[in-house]
Amino acid sequence: MNLFRRITSQPHFSKITKRTYKYLKSPDQSLEPPLTHGIHVFHSPDAVGIVAKLSECIASRGGNILGADIFVPENKNVFYSRSEFVFDPRKWPREQIDEDFLTLAMTFNALRSVVRVPNLDPKYKIAVLASKQMLSADFLQRYGKDIINIHHGLLPSFKGGHPARQAFDHGVKLIGATSHFVTEELDAGPIIEQMVDAVSHRDNLQSFIQKSEN
Question: Where is the Formyl transferase N-terminal domain (predicted)?
Fold first, then answer.
């Protein structure tokens, strides 16, 4: 059974987010073990056919996509994706996986294409930030791993410092926090999860801050 989930933004987000959706599919019960779980992260200039080629790359080797998050900011000409898939390592060896995704990356002039197979690869770390410090492009490239930031505001609105004050000044009725992947652009990476709380005219700036940080 296929499940297609479309994530729609609130009205004041609609001009900022061009395209964001999540596709989830239950694993094919006909596939027998041993299956191995893989994760692919892709960042390239936006172009027609990326999703089709990504799906073809995995399916042509007998793999099965379990989930794919796609994010394309409006007027940025940038494409981000994170795909989770299962595959039989006997049919798709680890070295061949790297070669196939490298071919995909070269086809679309990708800025980043990373494949991880947790059961086969060495352990890696994911950094989590809750900081006002902005990381340089040079640091992100040298670090080479996923970094997640916790922003005390509802992105893509209210980027940068003092998001609760920005929300208070705009008189919004929903505030919260956002976890997202860090990119070179401030608070512009793909959104992972958001927590939302309601506010009203009875709330003051301090209660805005408390609700967005709790």
Answer: 130-211
